[in-house]
Amino acid sequence: MKKIVIVGANHAGTSAINTILDNSKDFEVTVFDANSNISFLGCGMALWIGNQIDGPEGLFYSNKALLESKGAKIYMETPVTHIDYDQKIVTGVTQSGEEIKAPYDQLILATGSQPIVPPIPGMTLENVQLVKLYQHADEVIKKLESPAIQNIAVVGAGYIGVELAEAFKRNGKNVTLIDIADTCLPVYYDTPFTDMMKQNLGDNGIKLAFGETVKAIEGDSKVERIITDKNQYDVEMVVMAIGFRPNNALGKDNLELFRNGAYLVDKHQRTSIKDVYAIGDCATVYDNSIEGTNYIALATNAVRSAIVAAHNVLGNDLESAGVQGSNGISIFDLKMVSTGMTHAKALSNGYEASFVDFEDYQKPEFIKEDNHKVKLRIVYDANTRRVLGAQMASKHDMSMGIHFFSLAIQQKLTVDQLALADLFFLPHFNKPYNYVTMAALSAK
Ligand SMILES: Cc1cc2nc3c(=O)[nH]c(=O)nc-3n(C[C@H](O)[C@H](O)[C@H](O)COP(=O)(O)OP(=O)(O)OC[C@H]3O[C@@H](n4cnc5c(N)ncnc54)[C@H](O)[C@@H]3O)c2cc1C
Ligand SMILES: NC(=O)c1ccc[n+]([C@@H]2O[C@H](COP(=O)([O-])OP(=O)(O)OC[C@H]3O[C@@H](n4cnc5c(N)ncnc54)[C@H](O)[C@@H]3O)[C@@H](O)[C@H]2O)c1
């Protein structure tokens, strides 16, 4: 039997294990994970912290017993400390200090990412929190019960920071949201959209401290204040959410890396060493919007890249379709979704980019219930007319609409091809002249 070793058993690793074992019985699959749990959905963390769901139980979809029932050998709480890429041997160390040596024919690295820790004074004070793992969320929730914690600074107004700012507000805490950029969610949306989210956060009582650089966290053993280049805020907890860094410790000296340290992979998820694959947050993706290699840490990419790697391990020649970085967020009922490049990013990447904006009600005005305005921006190349990105915002759940644009970018469609696409009409759902058609028709 061919030996497959997988390092990391969270979203990417679990997806690879399932794909291999669901499709073949001819492989011996050995898996190592440093953590004590598998498959925690970080995307549900804010809902759990904000008391919008019953508890964390539903945020797990797999476990050691389930994967072992399929035939995998799973070592939990067993960090891999060394990989001999010449001899093809992975070494893990159990909690009791026992060394496990696992030889492989093919190796899948699924070691994910870690939150970025800024090099500022005060990071080791009590109540400075990182938020990635189940254990992190559990610790934050226990601390929130203390009446001593009333004022919280969230650093980073990206996806995690904005979601957690809402969650802490739902706990009745005073929240200050700090970002080095002059707005929130700048990676994903252009100004008209980030302005909507800014307004939404402000209207719901979150103090916004944008355009401020954090210099230090201060206190006498516990957090007492956070200092920026412009202000200082008295807080009892600081939550750091300024992005992820790929976890490349096991391969950084052996494998070719992307500029941020992620393992550089091709469309088969192959690294620079034969028989070694990398998937999920530790690896690069092929980004169809920029037509090149990129780093986009998302669970969706983790699961799909794992399916691709697993099929190649099985001997099926499967190539990734690439990604568009499609994403979504819902904060105090404001829903925003985006895919591909923002206009600002397209310009900074050297495209002669244009955009078209359109805003309309989701349904005809005679429908009075659950009918909200939807704001749409399509970003396209002014020369080739190729769709480069799209953003949508509404109180209506229009999220499925972004998939249309995602596929358009993947298939290199032009904005003019979208204008004449066959979109159905029914008043319960949309308008005969819907905003997608109208926006695309209006593209200059
Ligand atoms: C709060 C939060 C909200 C999020 N929301 C969303 C969302 O809404 N949508 C979305 O698409 N994505 C979301 N993400 C991102 C998503 O969680 C990640 O992209 C995803 O976890 C990546 O999966 P992964 O398996 O590649 O890596 P990870 O989840 O980082 O898992 C890596 C695994 O490798 C193990 N490991 C690492 N090193 C070793 C070693 N040396 N030996 C053994 N094991 C090792 C770790 O213990 C871990 O279990 C969110 C993330 C967070 C933190
Ligand atoms: N809904 C979702 O799809 C979802 C939810 C949560 C997380 N995620 C993913 O998880 C990953 C990590 O999320 P994240 O929110 O940590 O990263 P992010 O990239 O979304 O946001 C990081 C934010 O931190 C800011 N920042 C960077 N350095 C800073 C500094 N020194 N001081 C202050 N601000 C600073 C950036 O300007 C940015 O706004 C991302 O890939 C994200 O897409 C996705």
Automatic annotation (TrEMBL):
Its EC number is 1.6.3.4. Its cofactor is FAD. Residues 2-306 form the FAD/NAD(P)-binding domain. The keyword NAD applies. Residues 331-430 form the Pyridine nucleotide-disulphide oxidoreductase dimerisation domain. Keywords: FAD, Flavoprotein, NAD, Oxidoreductase, Redox-active center. The keyword Manganese does not apply. It comes from Fusibacter bizertensis. InterPro entries: FAD-bd_OxRdtase (IPR050260), FAD/NAD-bd_sf (IPR036188), FAD/NAD-binding_dom (IPR023753), FAD/NAD-linked_Rdtase_dimer_sf (IPR016156), NOXase (IPR058076), Pyr_nucl-diS_OxRdtase_dimer (IPR004099). It catalyses: 2 NADH + O2 + 2 H(+) = 2 NAD(+) + 2 H2O. It comes from the Bacteria. It is an enzyme of class 1 (oxidoreductase). This is NADH oxidase.
